[in-house]
Automatic annotation (TrEMBL):
InterPro entries in the record: Flavoprotein-like_sf
Protein name: NAD(P)H dehydrogenase (quinone)
PANTHER family: FLAVODOXIN-RELATED PROTEIN WRBA-RELATED, NAD(P)H DEHYDROGENASE (QUINONE) FQR1-LIKE 1-RELATED
Protein family membership: Belongs to the WrbA family.
Organism of this sequence: Brassica campestris
């Protein structure tokens, strides 16, 4: 699964960004229903991607 992007589609086109994966988008409901989860992502400057950070920030109610 993948987290939702944070940039608008028209900006991604202007940046010549590669197309998104066909993997389904994860929601906070998916996390609430899971028995366990494992996150994996590359880091840049020892930080997780902004998209993932935004997703985790949105799960504060869990």
């Amino acid at each position: 699964m993948q987290v939702p992007g944070t940039l608008q589609e028209d900006l991604l086109c202007k940046m010549s960004a590669p197309p998104n994966s066909d993997a389904p988008l994860i929601t906070s409901n998916d996390l609430a229903e899971a028995d366990a989860f494992v996150f994996g992502f590359p880091t840049r400057f020892s930080m997780m991607a902004a998209q993932f950070k935004a997703f985790l920030g949105a799960t504060g109610g869990l």
